[in-house]
Amino acid sequence: MSTRAKVHSRSNLAFVALAASFVLALAAFGLWAASRIDDRSMARETRAVRVGLEEILDRIPLEQDTSAIWTESVVNLRANNEPWLAENLAEWVSEYFGHDRVYLVAPDGQPMRAVQNGEQVPLGTYGEDQAVIEPMIRQLRQTMANAAESDPADSTAAITGLGLIDVRVMPDGRAAIVSMRPVLPSDATLVQASGEEYLHVSMIDLGARIAEAIGTKFEVDDLRFERELAADRGRIAAPVLDKAGRIVGFFSWQPYEPAFQLIWETGPGMVLCVLFLVLAGTLLILRLQRTTRRLNESEAQATFFAYHDPLTHLPNRALFEQDLARALANGRRNGCRVVLHCLDLDHFKSVNDTLGHPAGDALLVEVAQRLGALVGEHDLLARLGGDEFALIQKNVTDLGDALGLAQRIVSSLEEPFVLDGHEVHVSASVGLMSADDPLVSAQDLIGRADMALYQAKNGGRNRYMLYAGELGAAVRERLALEADLRLAVRTGEGLELVYQPIFCAQSQTVLGAEALIRWQHKDKGRLSPAMFIKLAEERGLIRQLGLWALEKACRHTVASSLPWVAVNVSPIQFQDERFAERIFDILEATGLHPRRLEIEVTEGLLLQNSPQVQETLRLLRARGIRVALDDFGTGYSSISYLRTHGVDKLKIDQSYTTQLENNVEIRSIVRSIIDLGRAMNMKVTAEGVETEEQREILLAMGCNQLQGYLLARPMAAPALEALLTQSAEIGPLILRA
Fold first, then answer.
1. How does pLDDT run across 110-147, given as a tens digit for each residue?
2. Alpha helix segments (H runs only) across 237-276
3. What's the pLDDT tens digit per position in 388-410?
4. Which residues, at least 6 apart from 617, have a Cβ–Cβ distance to it below 8 Å?
5. Which end of the chain is less crowded, N or C, counting CB atoms within 10 A of the terminal residue's CB?
6. Which PROSITE patterns would you find in this protein's record (predicted)?
7. Superfamily (CATH H level) for 317-471
8. 116 contacts 94 by C-beta, under 8 angstroms
9. Strands 495-504 and 705-706, sheet pairing
């Protein structure tokens, strides 16, 4: 062999060796890169599983507190009102939030109610979990007792926010999340001493449902929860520990290994295409880069949802608390003021109740969008849960800027929302707290803003309130009046009905009477309805108060010679889908014929244009109960509403009656109302008749019925009976509408 041939051969060998070395180096690099990528993928999946479980652990107490922090819950637990507990505290929580088991535990440690999968089960079921639950209850009660040592007579403020949650192995071998929260009053009207707290215990089994939820949200393939780790080399696992560090079980899943999967797919092609090694290597590197980018995007998404609300995409409570702490720290260093706005939607529950929870979710998204358009570039808007939002306003130089922002928030949310073709009106109450004290803590700032929010709600809602110290005298007086009204509604003490007769315009005989509620307060004397009816509507007492008045009026009418009685009904009562049924029950219990009952409603009720209101009015009129439209002419009077809803009587507001003698325009309006009633076959009653000239004008116009001080003032039941007897002696009563 020639020297050149030897050189060429050596060159070829060197090239082959170099190429082989390059291929091996490239292969080694590929395997190393693939291993790194797959390690990052598995690390991301491990973090995602951990974050998913932590989110569930954070969510369960919030779900419990939607019903556990509520004065009505404490009241009904003490009364052991089982239907109420089922609808609001036990079965409802289990069914709506998916809690597998719910126990209500009395202060003496005995179970009051047991629920499994939304259905009540025997109390003996509690015994199956008692061995795990009771030590946790003792631990929680000791924690609450320690917190309430400064004021054991009223522990609510000290223990609000306390609870206990852990992952435990139950006696039957299953693993479950066990969360317990004290049931607390939501306002100062109810005092609860230390040791008197009822407990709400929720349990969610760690099993396929939890694993599927986490796996679906974070894209973890075939995620399972196992009490014992199975010997499967193709799966990876992460232990689940309780607070004591004991292993409760394992989450295992099929890891996503994009790089090795890619090599497996492209390996045969690389062997067959050695001549295109460089090109194949380049393509591999590009594919690996794209895979890395997708993993980074996936990891960023998981991190985002760990600190953001999945519905509105606003920061959640965790990110809010971190940012508030940073803002306060920066404010101390730079001398910049921080203002915290806590806001709550007014009447949000009624949207959920009437239009459904999907509409409520859509409303929250639109509210978040409106609020987001108002906040500054460096401010932070967060959704804390439910219909609660918070805004951290930073670098505030003038407090007037913060107050102006709060007013813009209130004004913006006053505008109607359109949800699935329905126009919805809500409003917002806002509480503000300015961090003027450099040493104020984040929790103190939140607590004081919440107190200002409470003042805004109790001041009539749809407004903002700046924290200015402890509750003022006016707020305390209002809270005391609310507590007295609750007691009066519950016991009937101090409440009474008076009756103002309604007369035939032609014969001046008594046709019927309007029942009017009065309250004889123990300290303030007799209060006018204007002082307590609106309070009853705002604080959820009007339904019970209205039914009390209706039953009282029906019982009196049955026992008297009164032809019929008219009772005022609040629009809020019509939000009850069973309102017509409740009226029928009262008529049956009292024995009053439906034709002897007339209910008075306002124009505002008809303006809601609600199918539920229309159906309720239809059922009432079909049974024979008459419907009168009170204060007609003071609102948006529409013939179409009268025809759509069905009305039997129009009542001319007294503001028109008082001007009949001196105002020609008012006379024309009243004559038009009377003509309208005649054309639509409706009776017309004029309210507020106080002079003989007014009576004569109305009589000449053809008004059917008169009511006012000229004829009779509101009177107690015995005085009404005397008037009826006197009327009977003069002439027969006219029993007609």
1. 999 999 999 999 999 999 999 999 999 999 999 999 99
2. 258-272
3. 999 999 988 888 888 889 999 99
4. 601, 627, 645, 646
5. N
6. EAL (PS50883), GGDEF (PS50887)
7. Reverse transcriptase/Diguanylate cyclase domain (3.30.70.270)
8. yes
9. antiparallel
